Amino acid sequence: MAADARIHTFVAGASAGGVEALRGLAAALPAEFPAAILVVLHLAPSGTSVLPQILQRAGPLDARQAVDRGPLEGGCIYVAPPDYHLLVEDGHALLDHGPRINGHRPAVDNLFRSAAVAYGKGVAGIVLSGVLDDGAAGLMAIKQRGGMTLAQDPDEALYDMMPRTAIELVHPDFVGRIVDLAAEMARLAADPPEGPDPAGVDPREDAVLAVDRGASDDPQPGQPLGLTCPECNGAIWESLEHGMIRFRCRTGHEYGLETFLAEQSDRVEVALWTALRALEERAALNRRIAARNRDRGNAKTAERFALRADEAVEHAIVLRRLLTEYQNDSVNEEGAA
Question: Which of 2, 21, 128, 143 is deepest in the core (most CB within 10 A)?
Fold first, then answer.
């Protein structure tokens, strides 16, 4: 990236610990900051977000929730609302209720990719505190189109996995603490362009293409794995894009490597707990039937059902031990990461 690069649109993404990072960034930016800033923070799909109010109070810039087709103005922070992807289209925000990416809607990758397509060298992406790997693929898309790439120093982030993964896979142009990121943003910032960018592409066209692709015999690039999507249980395809492994299903749910592994781990744990509950319920039911037959004088029948109950309890004990070991292994892996 040239030293005189001028950025008129900044896109930032965060997850756990992101409120603190974004608040610090808003506080450190100057009042005369001329560029537009779009923000995705992983949110629960229900309820409302108070992040615009938090950022409004934190610093001198205006902060508001993005609205569909709303124009993007310089010196303003736009926050993705819950349960909607935030995209960029020719100087406007676009809200989309498409498939979850990396298990989230809004997702960082979606915002970054749409900004890269719309603005190319005029956009910069910033990956802040968070878990797993949302944002890395989107940051790579910005880099591939000549935009600026930045990441929070993992040693400062409350949760370092998102920025650390982005650093390892993308090698950003700038890595620093929040105050340093704000200073670099101020150095690069320029006024938004007047009128639509001729390079812009309507992100809604991607949705049409996704439907056409999903209905075909070759719905996703890459190789089918024989695995299923954690979101919809559809078949999963694996592809390698700019050195990053991506997993996609027919309907468009998409995962990075770390997110897909985490989702698979959650599914295994849910399945184990479901099996444990079923065994305990089986034991309880057989004990009840055994007791009723014993009261009626059916000793042999009662013994048969009591034996089934004991077998179910033994299997449940083994499964509970397995669950404990599985959870301990997961905790140890998170600590090592």
Answer: 128
What type of residue sits at position 130?
G
H/E stretch holding 243: none
pTM: 0.78
Is 209 a domain residue? no
Looking at the 3D structure of the chain, how many domains does it have? 3
Instruction: Decide the pairing of beta strands 85-89 and 92-96.
Output: antiparallel
Is 196 domain-assigned?
A: yes
Catalytic status, residue 15: yes
The active-site residue, picked from 15, 109, 160, 206, is: 15
DSSP H helix total and E strand total for the chain: 9, 13
Is residue 49 a part of any domain in this protein?
Answer: yes
- Does 315 qualify as catalytic in the annotation? no
Instruction: List own/partner pairs for 198-203 with CB under 8 A and 24 or more apart.
Output: 199/117, 199/118, 199/119, 199/120, 200/89, 200/90, 200/91, 200/117, 200/118, 200/119, 201/89, 201/117, 201/118, 202/89, 202/90, 203/87, 203/88, 203/89, 203/94, 203/96, 203/114, 203/117
Active site residue 62: no
Catalytic residue among 133, 134, 173, 206: 134
Note whether residue 175 is domain-resident: yes
Q: What is the pLDDT of residues 2-54, one digit of tens each?
A: 455 689 999 999 999 999 999 999 999 999 999 999 999 998 888 778 999 99
